[in-house]
Amino acid sequence: MLLFENTRQKLLYFLKILGSPFKKFVSTGEFKEELSLVQSRQDLLESIINIIENNENFILPIIGEVGIGKTHLYWTLKNKLYYHNTVYISLENVYKKFYYNTYSEFIENLGVEPLRYIANQLCNSWGALERKFGFFHVADISKVRKTACENWSSKFDDEIALTDVINAITAHQLDPYKKIDAERWLLGELMDVRELSRLNLTHDLRKEVNSFLMLKILIENSKLGSVLFIDDFEKILSMMKAAEEETDETEEVFDPSWLYGTQNRALPEIRTAKKILDKILNLQKIHGIRTIITLKSIDSFEEIKKMIEEKNRKLLFFLKEPLFLLGLDERDMFQFYKKAMEQFLENINYVEFLKENPDSYYPLNEKVLKYIFNESNGNPREIIKFLIKIFNEIIFSYEELDDILVKYE
């Protein structure tokens, strides 16, 4: 049995065995971030929640430099917005097949049970509760589909997509032999021609108009509010700039128009970027969708604003004034470090250390934390990189703790 002179020595032992409390240094939309927001950002959080709760459709830009904590803000929002389906979308991952990928993320966050409930309520509103004959409840699926088409034909332009959606929803609720396959379709699973034919469908949700239509139906008929948090929005600008720079460099050496006319190789990239923006703006046709986008600078916001104005000046009505996510102040950084250490100690079941050292920053100290803050300029990602570096030295080095810390004081 190991004996320790004090709780600090025991903590060092746990660190060497279990590793650093700061293993994960970048928050992502896929992995849940447990740490709460620091005090100085509470006002920003309240402003965002106020906008969400008092507006049904908008595009809200959040501006902050790389590593400032925009994705961490998403997780804090998700934890606070109990009555909203808050979905993280990275343009880096979804810009190809935008609507299908966005729908996939949305349905994963929504869950199967709310999907089934919405489908049930829609079928009931189309007359599924009427008895076809006799005492037993047997719905007339053909009549329900006809009623649905009559109710929705004026709302949606694409008849083929509308028929697909209605057939899938009614098969899911009213045809027990096709229920499982219909649910697979509603969940966005890929289906071959034979599976689609069995359901009397033309396309699965890879078809853009189908995935957009389903997104609209679920959002507008959900009991929960819907928030899309679109990260890396500058992907649109970077695609356009990269294409323009490629054109400039090519023309300095060789102008393709000499042989091939005026066609520009960069045009497909520029068109793709513009299509993505069109699709994001088109989401505003969905009643009740709230969109948050992240940008790195006010200049990027002005560029996006100009592009929106060129497409349709009326869409500027949905564009809110940007909110700014600033770096941490010194007090925030101390608070962040303390909370991270407390969480680590609770996870390893060593709260005894907290009781005996309630105000301690051990194994670091105040001087080291101030050094980290000054070197990182309050950028959360840089702060965590420093913490990882120092804790790795503590864990893997044979030097005494005081000799390691003195380099950072």
Overview of this protein structure:
By secondary structure, the chain is an alpha/beta fold. The protein has helices spanning 7-18, 42-54, 70-80, 91-94, 98-110, 112-125, 141-152, 159-174, 179-186, 193-198, 208-221, 235-253, 257-260, 267-282, 298-311, 330-347, 352-356, 366-376, 380-396, 401-405, and strands at 58-63, 84-90, 225-231, 289-295, 323-324. A five-stranded parallel β-sheet has the order 2-3-4-1-5, with helices on both faces.
Draw up the topology in text:
Elements (H helix, E strand, L loop, with lengths): L6 H12 L23 H13 L3 E6 L6 H11 L3 E7 H4 L3 H13 L1 H14 L15 H12 L6 H16 L4 H8 L6 H6 L9 H14 L3 E7 L3 H19 L3 H4 L6 H16 L6 E7 L2 H14 L11 E2 L5 H18 L4 H5 L9 H11 L3 H17 L4 H5 L4
Helix pairs in contact: 5-11, 6-8, 7-8, 8-9, 8-11, 12-14, 18-19
Short summary of the structure?
This protein is of the alpha/beta class and 409 residues long.
